[in-house]
Amino acid sequence: MTQGKLSVANKSSGGSSGTEAPPLAPPPAPPCYEEATAAGSPCCSGSYGGDGETITGLGWDDLNIRRMFVRKVYSILMVQLLVTLAIVALFTFCDPVKDYVQSNPGWYWASYAVFFSTYLTLSCCAGPRRQFPWNLILLAVFTLSLSYVTGMLSSFYNTRSVMLCLGITVLVCFSVTISSFQTKVDVTSCQGVLLIFCIVMLVSGLVLAFVLPLGYVPWLHAVYAALGAIVFTMFLAFDTQLLMGNKRYTISPEEYIFATLSIYLDIVYIFSFFLQLFGTRRD
Q1: Spatial distance between the Cα atoms of 168 and 148, rounded to a whole number of angstroms
Q2: What are 55-78's pLDDT values in tens digits?
């Protein structure tokens, strides 16, 4: 009301003096949505200086975090594979060690029990899996126990067969990894197909377990080994794309132990099934 009275007073005084007051400038138009969000929204990007911490809204989508995550996973995986390769070579080429592990199967079952218990702990319990250094200690125990199991299985096969299956495993895993990084096919959305293959493999394993006491059937064992190699090759592609993080389903960068565990287990199982499929037992 006061502003209106002043405006009227100014007009009346201006009109009496013969001079007209300049019109008031119109208020600026509000910015559009594109102009308002061009500088970034403080709630989803930028930094907050209240406590000196930088807040990143989409950390998983950040390429640097993903590269560090992938680099960490494959660095630990290379150490695991080297340990497993060393133990398999020791059990295959060293005759005293090979004779000892074959004559003492109790160590095999003990190693399998340790492998299974550490696998359940790392897979089902988020606390030990994320707490340093217990996660690395459990992963080391898991690697050593599974390496012993794999080495003892390899000791029953011919040395040439072990080297051949090792080479096939390297080629298959390398090809699957490269294709998983390059292909546009989303394997992470094919969980139903993987579930069906796992059910078929479970049923085949039960049938094989009931048939073996009655007599060894070579073709049935070969079918089971081929099915197992196919299933875990698919799981390797699935876990690799989970690691990449640019598909439908991703894995958190905090779960580097679980990612390493999954890929390592896939590779070891692929090797063991190739060994059953192409390997020749010792006389």
Answers
A1: 21
A2: 333 444 567 777 888 888 889 999
How many residues are recorded in the chain?
Answer: 283
Q: Convert the pLDDT of each residue in 183-198 to its tens digit.
A: 777 777 877 888 888 8
- Give residue limits of the domains in the chain: 63-278
Instruction: Quickly state the pLDDT bin for 127 (edges 50, 70, 90).
Output: confident
Burial class of 263 by CB neighbour count within 10 A (0 to 12, 13 to 18, 19+):
buried
Contact between 70 and 243 (Cβ < 8 Å): yes
Under 8 Å CB-to-CB from 101, ≥6 apart: which residues? Answer: 91, 107, 108, 148, 151, 152, 155
Closest alpha carbon to 252 in 61, 77, 64, 74: 61
141 vs 133: CA distance, rounded Å: 13
pLDDT given for residue 55 in this prediction = 30
Distance of alpha carbon 7 from alpha carbon 66, whole angstroms? 63
Contact 270, 172 (CB under 8 A): yes
Write the CB contacts of 187 (distance below 8 Å, at least 6 apart in sequence): 180, 234, 237, 238, 241, 247
Model-wide pTM > 0.85:
no
Burial 213-242, CB ≥16 within 10 A → b, else e: eeeeeeeebeebbebbbebbbbbbbbbbbb
Tally Cβ neighbours within 10 Å of residue 280.
13
**Cα–Cα distance for residue pair 38/113, rounded to 1 Å:** 58
Residue 51 tokens read as 């406590």
| Type of residue at 35 | E
